[in-house]
Design a protein that fits this description.
Radius of gyration: 17 Å
Order of helices and strands: EEEHEHEHEEEHEEHEHEHEE
Number of helices: 7
Strand content: 25-35%
Structural class: alpha/beta
Oligomer: single chain
Strand order of the largest sheet: 6-5-4-3-2-1-14
Amino acid sequence: MKLQLWRNATLELTIGDWKLLVDPMLGEKGSFGPFPWTDDKRDNPLVDLPFTKEELKRKLNQINAIFVSHLHPDHFDQAAIDLIDKNKTIICPYTLTKTIKSYGFRSVIEIRDGLNLNGINLQLTMGRHGEGEIGKLMGPVYGLVISQGSNSIYIAGDTIWCPEVGSIVEFYKPKHMIVAGGAATFQMGKPVTMNAQDIKELADFTSGSLIWLTHLEAISPCQEGRDFLVEFIKQNNLSGRVFVPKDGEEFELKF
């Protein structure tokens, strides 16, 4: 299996000859403007994709299916709606099916619990996109456990460290976990994605898993960048277990 981080939460997983694109934010730098509930007026995304338009088109043509976890613009933006072939298979939580079909996509597969595609098992998971008032404003979010045989990957999605995540890790014991870091923070409440301490607690909770951090340096609410997290990982003896991919970087996931 291979993992390539495109940008933010957008990543490509290659399982054999099957390619899954997760949470496509495909717009150019600044294409969807400032986030609400923040004083930061920078236009988002803060950085471009690490591909030319021609490379992006080629890569999208190679994708077999797309998983959309929720509809925040840093996970499924207008550019993704415009650029993705309307005949591509979109996999989404059942709560999003109607909306995604309204965008013109003709092959939408909703997932309520589990799903098997081409011998690959997909299990929908829940998380907490923050707590209190900001958690309610963020709305429900989902993740995905992807399994083939005894090999499993857990894409946690936009969630803080919480009992739901702990239960999923305990039950599936994934070798690899892909976690939204960055400590995304708004005007009210605590971070809505994992901060460095959350990541340490997750790593301490599961000594056998490798953790890959996404959601870094691409949108304005995120407060913790790569340099900070690399130093935090080093200071907390997590090197070799927690990784900070760069945009466009590709890795072989070993089991």
